[in-house]
Every structure is written in C-alpha cells, then in structure tokens.
Amino acid sequence: MRVYSLSRLLLGWGIVAASILTASDPSTGLRAFQEGDYKTAFREWKAAADQGQPTAEYNLAVLYLKGLGVSKDPDEAFRLFRVAADHGLAEAEFRVGQMREAGWGSAPNYHEAVLWYQKAADNGDPEASESLAELLEEGYGQEPDLKRAVMRYREAADKGYPAAQYRLGLLTEHGHGVAHDDAAAAKLYRAAADQDYDDAKVRLGMLYERGRGVPQDDKEAYFWFTLASKHGNKAAEHERAEVIKKLTADDVQQLEVRAWKWRPKLVAPRNPAIVQ
Predict the structure, then answer these.
(1) Mean pLDDT of all residues in the chain?
(2) In 117-142, which positions are buried (b, 16+ CB within 10 angstroms) versus exposed (e)?
(3) Is 146:171 a contact under the CB 8 Å cutoff?
(4) Cα angle for residues 6, 10, 16 (degrees, 5° grid)
(5) In degrees rounded to 5, what are phi and psi of residue 55?
(6) Distance (Å, rounded) from C-alpha 120 to C-alpha 54?
C-alpha cells in the first residue's frame, strides 16, 4: 500500500535538492540556492514567479515548503506548485499529484492524484509515470489495470527511472500483466541496482543464487546482497547470511573488496533549472 507522509515528501525533495548542487545554471536564484543564500534565492524567484515563470514558481514553492529564506508555509507551497502545474511544468504536475495522494490539507484523493500523474507522465516526467503505474497496479483512484500499469512502468523504465525498472522487473519475474521472463527481469533489476536501488539488488542477487534468468553464481549473489545490506536492507542481510555458507574465506574477502570499490551510476538531473 502506498502511503505518503509529510516527512517522506520532504525527504524526497531534500535528496533531489542535494543532487542538484553541482548543476550549472546561469540563474541568479539557482546560484544563490546552491550557495545557501536562500534569502537571495527567494527574492529572485519571487520576482520571476510574479512574472509567471513556472520554474521560478516551482522553486519558490520549495522554499516555502522547507522554510528556506522565508517562513515555512505548506499551503503557499501547494498553491505555487499548483500555479506552476497550471502553467504546464511537468515536475509541478507530479508534485501536485503526490501531494493529493498524500492528503495535503485534506483526506488523500487518489482520483485527483491519478489525473495529475497522468498529466505529468504525458508531459514526459518518468517519476510521474512510475507513481501512476503504482496506483494503476494497486487500484487506487480507479479499478486495477495491470496492462496500463505495465505500459507506464515501461515508459519510466525506458527513461532510466530505477523505481520503475524494479517494479516492472517484479511484474516480469512473476508474469503479472506481462509475460513471465526471468532474463528480462534480471536486466531490469540490474539497471535499477546499478543506480543503487537496494530492493533491485536483492532480487538480482536472488536470481543469481537460484540461476534464474542468469547463470547460477553464488559469488555474484553475495556481491549484490552485500551492497544492499550496507544500507541496512534486512532482506539482503538475511540472504547474505545464507549464501556466505557456500563461499570460501578468500571468496568473501575478494567480494568485500569489490563491494567497497563499487560506485553507482550517476544520473543527471532531469531538469537542472529546478531544485525540488
């Protein structure tokens, strides 16, 4: 069951904001934000937002949401996200959908969330495609529709969005809404795992351990379980404890070094003009 909380929303935005710090942008507001000068960022984005610039409206909403350079005001943040969404900014359409799903200011409204996710997905936002697919799969806001869910997952997966790659991998591995294909599932899990998606690492490790869709390989299984366990993934810790029994001490040492050296693939921000 999908449950969004205010803390989860703020965490998600904080993670993306941190990832944007190295992005290059001539905007005075964005430069000020990157330097931690939130009052200047607020002033610059407020002026641009007053002129109807959707990225400025979006960025200003983030400042209100997080209380950066201005007193925290979630209601004003929601209003500005909605204004930017009405101006056709895909990321803002997604945030409005996410906030409606979370029940921002009222009970969760999955029907409205579906409509906003649909707009954002059709406007090219892969995160919205994935969120829409989850609602379609689970039947929130309308009847479950696995066929459409698979289409939307694939849409986001093809754009490199790891959550969608993982979810599509699950459906493919179990043959839900799409033909069962362990090899295809393994490729999807690997794509998500390469971007540091821990649940995908676990599923990929399990396929290696069992020789499904990939050659049976306990060492490879241990490697992926180890990577996921470093982030406290309980399923990975359990699987790792089991597969280590099949390995030699030298195997384990080499795999631990390999895991220590491993780095995820870096993904460029989809829209470097916004801070999220």
Answers:
(1) 90
(2) bbbbbebebbbbbbbbbbbbbeebbe
(3) yes
(4) 150
(5) -65, -35
(6) 14
Look up residue 244 and give its DSSP letter: G
- The 10s digit of each residue's pLDDT in 10-36 is 445 543 443 333 333 337 899 999 999
Residue 204's contacts (CB-CB under 8 Å, 6 or more residues apart) are 186, 189, 190, 193, 224
Angle, vertex CA 104, rays to CA 102 and CA 105, nearest 5: 145
Q: How many CB atoms lie within 10 A of CB 157?
A: 25
| Dihedral (CA of 116, 3, 202, 145) sign | negative
Q: In the chain, what are the domains?
A: 162-267 (1.25.40.10)
What stretch of H or E contains 160?
none
Separation of alpha carbons 124 and 36, rounded Å: 30
Q: Record the pTM.
A: 0.85
Pairwise CA distance, residues 156 & 99, whole Å: 20
**Residue 160 contacts by C-beta under 8 Å, 6 or more apart in sequence?**
126, 191, 195, 267
Q: In whole angstroms, how far apart are CA 58 and each of 4, 50, 215?
A: 20, 12, 47
Cβ neighbours of residue 195 closer than 8 Å, sequence gap 6 or more: 160, 162, 264, 265, 267
Whose CA is closest to 149, among 124, 174, 123, 176?
176
Per-residue pLDDT, 4: 53
Q: Give dist(CA 111, CA 186) in Å, integer.
A: 33
